[in-house]
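User: quick one, fold this
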Amino acid sequence: GEGDASAVLDPNSDVKAPNDAPDSVGLRWNVFVPTRPGGEAISGKVRDRINARITALEPTITSAADSFSVPTDLLAVVLHRESGGDPSAVGDGGASVGLGQIKAATETTVNEYWGTDLNRKNWVHNIYLTAGNLRRLYTEMHASGWGLGRDLSTQWYEATRGHLCGKEGALENPSCGSQEASHRLATAGLSNQIPT
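Assistant:
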């Protein structure tokens, strides 16, 4: 089914994740991206720190990271920490679902922002929603008042906090998600993004 990735997540299975986005992903690029991370393989250092359920999804993670210009290692670590690679994971009393623990409001916001039609209950779409949300938060920090007065070298840190706490929660409470965001960035090899 749409949300069943059990065969894909079995490291002993020959079934692999799809290489491309669902047909409904037609990105409308509305930002200038000065550097274009994403699309690279998961690094060996990160591969050793995440479970096999996530590494089995590497083709989809790589494609989503490339589509939204998100560092592949960061996206893999976020998915690992959010769900442990379980596409049926449910959190926040049922409000957050899937590999990236996407809420209904986040699904709506990301789809409106990027002009996509992604469904958070589809495990492939959930990965794309996670990548799209991280890039949206990264971009909004840079392009809006959220980024004013902040060191732009910490944009992935702030985007990760925004994914954890929601944009408003991260704005209202600078310590919200700070330890977890720092852990995720360190694991992804992005320690230079962690504020000192």
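User: anything notable?
Assistant: Strands lie at 90-91, 96-97, 102-103.
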